[in-house]
Design goal:
The complex is a heterotrimer of chains A (about 230), B (about 290) and C (about 280). Chain B has about 290 residues and is mostly helical. Chain B contains 10 helices and no strands. The relative contact order of chain B is 0.13. Chain C has about 280 residues and is an alpha/beta fold. A 5-stranded mixed sheet of chain C has the order 10-9-11-8-12, with helices on both faces. The chains are: A mainly alpha (about 230), B mainly alpha (about 290), C alpha/beta (about 280). Chains in contact: A-B, A-C, B-C.
Chain lengths: ~230, ~290, ~280
């Protein structure tokens, strides 16, 4: 109980950061992932190649490296710090935003993989029908194919969201004050390893188990009956 | 899951002259944009001195590879291999356990799977590492590898348990009923009829999970395991070429993982072209990353 | 029936567990002298700190800490070839010693009362103090107070030096934490942070490894006595190591080791430590 008294506020702040990282990266990866999927099924050769190449490269890079590249490559070498360098909190802002960017870039590849599998479940007749109605490629994708694809991949998207929640712990390598960073500090400063482990285990279960249940429910609700 | 884009072509018509022109225009813009970005990045790097020859030359010396990179890559491969074997065993036990007729077994296996699916691997590794160190469960030389392997085995085992369970459940009921009708017991049905079919069908997903495990060993970097990323950073520290070292390590890891992904695709194709599996892969099989 | 089917994998799992477990039993009560008499020592050092303990490209180890460790080993009668070098990261040092996984640790190990609860310290063999490293062309950072005004400071994750600055000197300095000091050096060189902090001798090691790019500034603003950590109850081993350190200081090897490892940074040889035989 002493531990909770001493670290209560910090724990709350750390898990809040974890939650923020997850939410923002989920949004980012959904947008980018959808875009990548659209590129991968598009008629333009260059777009297809670009998107496929991107997915294959980023998906096969360890996340730790993606996060390190965001901090050392983008921010330090290329000067894309994503924060006002004059602001008094520029380092905290920059690290957090870079982490969100890195998670979005990485998770988008998995979203895109899932969504492409979803596109494959939509019968060809659907897009043929769309074309016969005079819809262009983008219109067909937007109004006919993607809505059905999304409904088919709700469960995998849920798993990806859970994986993302857990992955946000990697942000500790560039000093984002989220749960894993606090856990390391608590292990060093207190001798109650088991208690610390239980606290963080419980914290993450609170975040991930409801997500899994919710997505399971949604996927049943929106299942495309064929 | 990767590579084959043959079924997708039909989302659009065979392009006419206008569409062709548009496609070419977009493609050209794309290539130009990429080239511009590449030029900008390389000039920015050159300005910061990252492209200087002395930062890259160490990578063609044998010392660099023998002292730093190869031991790291070896460490990564070893931990991944060891972990995946344990994870498969654990996954089959837990997956089958979740389908058990005994309620206690079913619920306890379910709880274990859900628990390890919910906990971030990094948290698990940090915890195991400290646990093993505090209670001297492993000799110091094996401490980090033990923590990495334990963490990987538990979290990947939980994922494989779900794959196995889904695989067994997807087998047509008739198979199990026929086995019972032939007088096979529950265990025999599982062992001789259900599992072989499920595992054959699940092999691609399991190989894909190997890629995930391999990539996840990079998390061992945080608990001093001698794996590729950590060795890369040590090399960067010895030669003062941090960024080039990260780039080289990334290239090596991408190459290894792409190779494994190819292997997964190969297995998948071989299974598809061989005897028809009793079940066709469901969408749920989309490989979901642990990390 | 089902149990029989489960038996094989279960046995494999048990076997794997026990193979890993069996080798875990290490002699807990072994003293430094006992190990030395067996002709073999395992020494904990750092693998990635230039100037102190670093794995060099040919696989050997170099640095001031390494030289001290080697000298002590030779006084204990152990040849260099019979030393096993082991990476002892700051977070692991106590547990490595307590579990008997290393005989002693020479790795920028500050002697303090909290640590004395768990391990014993020989030495100090070096008197260090917290300081700042800045880019060579920087003129406006002269000490910890000048970090005020939102200057960006880098330190290793969860380390006390950074907390010390924020608490006692510059409250509105910004803190960037990375998990390795080499990442901080990289950030400093690229201009992403304005200064990096840790003990002066470690910073001097980085300055020596990056000549003309970074420099140390200001006086030290804390006192860190580096000791050699060993098992808490190993009193005779501690006395032996203390003797070895004393003779290293007396016969000039100590100064020589400092000059060859840290000298190139331009950092002057500090006062010789006085051994504390508590």
């Amino acid at each position: 109980m002493d531990i909770l008294n001493e670290y209560g506020d910090q724990l709350f702040a750390a898990f809040l950061t974890t939650l923020q990282l997850t939410m923002l990266s989920a949004l980012g990866s959904l947008l980018l992932g959808t875009m990548l999927t659209a590129m991968r099924v598009s008629p333009v050769w260059a777009l297809r190649t670009l998107a496929t190449g991107y997915v294959n490269i980023v998906r096969n890079t360890p996340l730790t490296l993606v996060v390190l590249f965001a901090s050392f490559g983008l921010a330090q070498q290329l000067g894309i710090t994503l924060a006002d360098p004059k602001s008094p909190t520029s380092i905290t802002d920059s690290s957090f935003r870079l982490a969100v960017l890195a998670f979005s870039l990485y998770t988008a590849t998995f979203v895109s993989e899932a969504l492409r599998a979803g596109v494959n479940t939509v019968p060809l007749g659907q897009s043929e029908a769309a074309r016969s109605l005079g819809l262009g490629f983008l219109q067909g994708l937007r109004y006919i194919v993607l809505p059905q694809a999304f409904r088919a991949v709700i469960a995998p998207l849920g798993s990806i969201l859970i994986a993302l929640t857990k992955n946000t712990t990697v942000a500790s390598v560039i000093g984002v004050a989220e749960a894993a960073l606090l856990m390391k500090e608590m292990i060093e400063n207190t001798s109650a390893l088991i208690v610390v482990g239980l606290i963080f285990g419980a914290g993450f279960m609170c975040l991930t188990i409801p997500t899994g249940a919710a997505f399971g429910h949604l996927s049943k609700k929106f299942e495309v009956k064929r | 899951m990767s590579g084959s884009g043959t079924t997708i072509r039909t989302l659009y018509d065979v392009p006419g002259p206008r569409a062709k022109a548009l496609n070419i225009l977009v493609s050209v813009l794309c290539v130009l944009g990429l080239a511009a970005a590449g030029w900008w990045v390389s000039s920015a790097l050159a300005e910061k001195g990252q492209l200087a020859a002395e930062k890259w030359e160490p990578f063609v010396t044998p010392e660099m590879w023998l002292t730093y990179l190869l031991p790291g890559i070896l460490g990564t491969l070893q931990a991944a291999a060891f972990a995946i074997v344990l994870a498969i065993i654990l996954g089959i036990l837990l997956g089958v356990g979740r389908l058990s007729e005994n309620r206690t077994v079913r619920y306890s296996c379910g709880a274990v799977v859900e628990f390890f699916r919910a906990i971030p691997l990094l948290i698990l590794m940090i915890f195991c590492f400290q646990l093993f160190a505090d209670y001297a469960l492993f000799p110091s030389t094996e401490l980090a590898v033990a923590a990495v392997v334990t963490g990987l085995a538990l979290s990947n085992g939980a994922v494989i348990a779900e794959i196995v369970r889904a695989g067994i459940k997807a087998i047509p009921r008739g198979q199990g009923e026929a086995a019972i009708a032939l007088g096979l017991g529950n265990g025999q049905t599982l062992r001789m009829i259900l599992l072989p079919q499920a595992i054959t069908a699940m092999l691609p997903a399991i190989v894909a999970q190997l890629v995930v495990a391999l990539k996840d060993t990079a998390l061992g970097y945080q608990i001093t395991y001698v794996e590729a990323v950590r060795q890369g950073i040590q090399a960067g520290s010895a030669y003062s070429n941090y960024i080039p070292a990260l780039v080289v390590i990334a290239l090596v890891m991408i190459a290894i993982n792409l190779g494994l992904s190819r292997l997964a695709t190969y297995f998948e194709n071989r299974l598809r072209s061989g005897r028809k599996p009793a079940l066709k892969p469901a969408v749920e099989e989309v490989v979901v990353p642990q990390t | 029936m089902k149990l029989k089917f489960l038996a094989a994998p279960a046995a494999a799992l048990l076997l794997a567990g026990s193979v890993a477990g069996c080798s875990g039993a290490s002699a807990k009560s072994k003293t430094v002298e006992a190990s030395a008499q067996n002709g073999h020592l395992t020494i904990g050092i750092s693998f990635d700190r230039p100037g102190l303990g670093i794995k060099s490209p040919d696989g050997t180890f170099k640095g001031f800490d390494v030289d001290v460790a080697r000298y002590v080993a030779s006084k204990l009668g152990v040849q260099e070839s019979s030393i096993t070098w082991k990476e002892a990261t700051p977070a692991q040092r106590e547990s490595l010693i307590q579990n008997g996984q290393v005989d002693y640790v020479v790795n920028t190990y500050s002697i303090n009362d909290a640590r004395k609860e768990k391990v014993a310290f020989a030495g100090p063999y070096f008197l260090a103090g917290q300081s700042l490293l800045v880019r060579a062309d920087n003129t406006d950072i002269t000490g910890p107070e000048s970090l005020n005004g939102g200057k960006k400071l880098c330190s290793v994750t969860g380390s006390t030096p950074a907390q010390n600055i924020k608490k006692n000197y510059s409250k509105d300095a910004q803190l960037q934490e990375y998990d390795t000091p080499s990442a901080c050096v990289e950030a400093l060189k690229s201009g992403a942070v304005d200064a990096m902090t840790t003990d002066d001798i470690q910073l001097a090691g980085y300055a020596a490894a990056n000549p003309g790019k970074v420099k140390l500034v200001g006086k030290t603003f804390s006192k860190e006595n580096y000791g050699i950590g060993l098992k808490k109850d190993d009193t005779s081993g501690r006395a032996k190591i203390n003797d070895a350190i004393q003779s290293m200081i007396d016969d000039g090897s100590w100064a020589k080791a400092f000059q060859s490892n840290i000298g190139p940074s331009g950092y002057a040889l500090p006062a010789k430590p006085v051994i504390d035989r508590y």
